[in-house]
Amino acid sequence: MASGPAFAARGGRRFYNNRPRNQGRNHNASKLPPTHFLCLPIGHHVRLQQAVSSFTDGLLQCTPPLPGLDRSIVIAPRRLHLTLGVMALDDGTSVSSSSGPAPAPSKTLQEALSLLLSLEPRIKELLSGSRLCVPLHRMNIMEPDGGNPDNAHVLWLGPSHDSEDALRLQRVGEIVSRTFREAGFISERRPLKLHCTVLNTTHRKPRGRGPRQPFSYRALVMSPAARPFFPAPAHFRDAIEVDFGTWDVEEIQLCRMGSYGGDGEYVSCGGFSLLP
Fold this sequence. Notes:
The structure is a single chain. 21% of the residues lie in helices and 19% in strands. By secondary structure, it is α+β, with helices and mostly antiparallel strands. The strands form four sheets. The chain has a four-stranded antiparallel beta sheet with strand order 2-1-11-12, with helices on one face. The two termini are 12 Å apart.
């Protein structure tokens, strides 16, 4: 069972200086766009969808509008997840361009699925009958342009670092990420930073030419619409501690990027259950 949100705020840590668009790329990242990602999906929890929607809807209804905030950059709550790594995989579909067929990834979807499934006994042993949970107790942004919180591009929710749930979650994530990295599926060498993206300017529509338009994190956290969720922070470098609930992870999935299922979720190509 997942515990619902009891909105509160406490204090936190600094910006991540990695951007999610770079997380977990494979050896051919400069030539091949990522096609699939490993994840811990949590967007199927209806109460989480409601909690996050309440937060983002309130921000979108601010008058005057918050600088740079637009509904197109809000991640649909049904798609919420924690990414463990991204990769380019050959799934048997051919992609052509004006210059001819694109080069095929060196790794296949079936190879990735086989490797993922091979981790099931190890992960189940680590969990020892316990449920894997995501405590969404921190909020912050990825490193903004020029270090200026008025030039933010990604807002995330993530786990705390001091609870048993959070430590177990990090251990599971690191096992999966490290295994795929050592097998050559992903090339990211930085430590795994588990987070759940809520706003991302990569998705802004319409897409203009030139640099992406940022949003103001400063305006967001100081907005009256944010007060039911956390008090106004004294500064903008540290993560804000919030309570958007603790949620069960029921599966580890390998999903196709950009895909949409019947409820708007990412389409899973396979994985395994984490339920006891």
